[in-house]
UniProtKB/TrEMBL annotation:
Keywords: Aminoacyl-tRNA synthetase, ATP-binding, Cytoplasm, Ligase, Metal-binding, Nucleotide-binding, Protein biosynthesis, RNA-binding, tRNA-binding, Zinc. It comes from the Bacteria. SMART domains: tRNA_SAD (SM00863). The gene is thrS. Residues 274-541 form the Aminoacyl-transfer RNA synthetases class-II family profile domain. Belongs to the class-II aminoacyl-tRNA synthetase family. The keyword Ligase applies. Residues 1-63 form the TGS domain. This is Threonine--tRNA ligase. One of its GO terms (molecular function) is threonine-tRNA ligase activity. Its EC number is 6.1.1.3. It is an enzyme of class 6 (ligase). Homodimer. Binds 1 zinc ion per subunit.
Length: 648
């Protein structure tokens, strides 16, 4: 019998007889490892734990407590779900199934009505019975010809068979009467699958292309332990309660209607107020830090984006050019950089002016695929809090530190603390994506790294996450679902000044090339406000709330004039206040103010009118307190001035 040689992660090499399984190899190390083993990884490819191996290579033992081990469990669950679907629906067809950090999914298609959310409990019952009966999952290898016969009549599976075939062989798994295509390593029985949940259904285009048929995607998740599943379901419930799309609808902040434009947000008065407060805050903050605010058109000659490289690198994410005739083509801008470059180029610049800081709340348009659109987080029209600094090489590290300091000040005011830093570098092997200039990349990457080290800040380094024109510092935060996303960026750019032939006159009277620093403090207004909605659960701090005070008279006839009087005083102070004069019971009006997450509810009756006071109830508090109106006015002004962080 031939001998196979395997190299372990620690560098040790061992020989085993041909036909050995990953489970056998794990047993040779320890019984406890064999009990935890759920798959093998041979030269990076996952294989079933009991698969007889015919060739050696680099081996990893995949265990339950690893990310790959969880993937194996979820791939097993996906196979069981397909078996349950095939058992329940005789005419079911299957698209792709896959796993991710959030669970797994199976795409289905039926000739009549698609699988509904109401049918998920029945499917769970069928799967639970398989687990209880410890149904075996047997690996079958079919020839390509036999595999195509097996899936005859299912066009999606036929295409997947051809895609997954290796050496004219295709792996299938037998689960009871069901024989289905394998799309990854699985376990040999249903027994380990004790903690799973079918979550929801949604439409998904076949192969992710809108020109293809719409399938029904069943979302689910699975864990080895029930406690982990319960934690995950609790997390999902919390995320659902924080979903900015749900809250945005309840609080009448914004809406997106595909009938009038997918990915285009309509800001209602409440949402527009929140956005306006954020925009004014950002502009004032930038002006105080030496930025000059500009306004530039959303249309630009296409040649500018060809010069910048955006047309070559992001053409698929840009809207089609508009042919204006006579050779002129205009493009909806996907980035503000070329616009700010034109501002810089409009005058002859001197070294005495540097650094020149240009900022704008710049509207941009990107052609996001319809399946990727999501509330305010993924849209086709967005307004970026954008800034570009033109500076000399010797000014880079000082300017970088100033921008970073400005960012952390902004985070403090918005009470953002859960973030970390990521230095994003190019992938030197990816010459198609990244501007090809090794000297530029090495110099700029070392400068950013040096600045972070000088500041003594912790960071992670990520190859392949840079912009095509230069490295960047990304500030990473987390959404309500726990997904990581970029909140802010600082990017160093030697390329665009070269391409647009930018100059400044140096102290020596000669022309010199400036460096560009791109930075966004809080991403786009759309994404940032979606983030704030979810962080605050719609209960904005007083300084951000669309309605800061709601005044409720006990009787409109008796106390209405007093309510209007104090409301007028608050409005004159710049506070967003109004009188609720609806003919409803006071208890209902108070509950309604709480439901709409109004920071302060003031009730006024005889006592308050006679003593020039108000009965104050803060959002989410059960009790109210009596205060002189003047004292309340000071309290709310202090609340707003301190960004609702208490007394400072």
């Amino acid at each position: 019998m031939a001998s196979l040689s395997f190299e372990f992660p620690d560098g040790n090499v061992k020989d085993f007889d041909e036909g050995v399984t990953t489970e056998d190899i794990a047993k040779s190390i320890s019984i406890s490892l064999a009990k935890k083993a759920v798959a093998g990884k041979i030269d990076g490819e996952m294989v079933d734990v009991d698969l007889p191996l015919q060739s050696g290579g680099k081996i990893e033992i995949v265990t339950k407590d690893s990310d790959d081990g969880l993937k194996v469990l979820r791939q097993t669950a996906a196979q069981l779900l397909k078996a349950a679907l095939a058992d329940q629906f005789t005419n079911i067809q299957f698209g792709e199934s896959n796993t991710n950090d959030d669970g797994f999914f199976v795409d289905t298609d039926k000739r009549e009505t698609q699988v509904s959310a109401d049918e998920l409990p029945q499917l769970e019952e069928r799967m639970n019975k398989m687990v209880k009966d410890n149904v075996k999952i047997e690996r079958k290898v079919l020839s390509l010809e036999d595999a195509l016969k097996q899936v005859d009549g299912d066009p999606y599976q036929a295409k997947l068979v051809n895609k997954l075939a290796k050496d004219n062989k295709v792996v299938f798994y037998q689960i009871g009467d069901y024989l289905g295509l394998g799309e990854g390593a699985v376990m040999s029985s249903a027994k380990p699958l004790k903690a799973f949940k079918l979550l929801s259904v949604a439409g998904a285009y076949w192969e992710g292309k809108s020109s293809n048929p719409m399938l029904q995607r069943i979302f689910a998740t699975a864990f080895y332990k029930k406690a982990n599943l319960e934690d995950d379901l609790n997390r999902r419930q919390e995320a659902k309660e924080r979903d900015h799309r749900v809250i945005g609808n309840k609080l009448d902040l914004f809406f997106v209607d595909p009938k009038v434009g997918a990915g285009l947000a309509y800001w209602m008065p409440n949402g527009a107020t929140v956005r306006r407060v954020v925009e004014r805050y950002i502009v004032d903050k930038e002006l105080a830090n030496g930025y000059e605010h500009v306004i530039t058109p959303v249309l630009m000659n296409l040649n500018a984006y060809k010069t910048s490289g955006h047309w070559d690198h992001y053409r698929d994410d840009m809207f089609p050019p508009m042919d204006m005739g006579e050779g002129e083509e205009l493009e909806l801008r996907p980035m503000n950089c070329p616009s700010h470059i034109q501002i810089y180029k409009h005058h002859i610049r001197s070294y005495r002016e540097l650094p020149i800081r240009i900022a704008e709340l710049g509207m941009m348009h990107r052609y996001e695929k319809s399946g990727a659109l999501s509330g305010l987080q993924r849209v086709r029209e967005m307004t970026l809090n954008d800034g570009h600094t033109f500076l000399g090489v010797e000014q880079i590290q000082d300017e970088f530190k100033k921008v970073l300091h400005l960012m952390t000040e902004v985070y403090k005011d918005f009470d953002i603390s859960n973030y970390h830093f990521r230095l994003s570098y190019r992938d030197p092997k990816n010459t198609e994506k990244y501007f090809d200039d090794d000297e530029m990349w090495n110099k700029s990457q070392s400068m950013l790294k040096g600045a972070m080290d000088d500041l003594g800040l912790d960071y992670v380094e990520a190859e392949g996450e840079a912009a095509f024109y230069g490295p960047k510092l990304d500030v990473q935060t987390y959404t309500a679902m726990g997904n990581e996303e970029t909140l802010s960026t600082i990017q160093l750019d030697f390329m665009l000044p070269e391409r647009f032939d930018l100059h400044y006159v140096g102290e020596d009277g000669q022309e010199h090339r400036p460096v560009m620093m791109h930075r966004g403090l809080v991403s786009t207004m759309e994404r940032f406000i979606a983030y704030l909605i979810e962080v605050y659960k719609g209960a904005f701090p007083t300084w951000l709330a669309p309605h800061q005070v709601k005044i409720i008279p006990v009787s409109m006839d008796k106390h209405g004039d007093y309510a209007k009087e104090i409301n007028e005083k608050l409005v004159q102070m710049g506070i967003r206040s109004s009188v609720d004069d609806r003919n409803e019971k006071m208890g209902y009006l108070i509950r309604d103010a709480q439901t709409n997450k109004t920071p302060y509810t003031l009730v006024v009756g005889d006592n308050e009118m006679n003593s020039q006071s108000v009965s104050v109830r803060k959002y989410s508090e059960q009790d109210s307190k009596d205060e002189l109106f003047e004292d309340f006015a000071k309290e709310i002004k202090n609340d707003i001035a301190n960004y609702s962080r208490g007394n400072e």
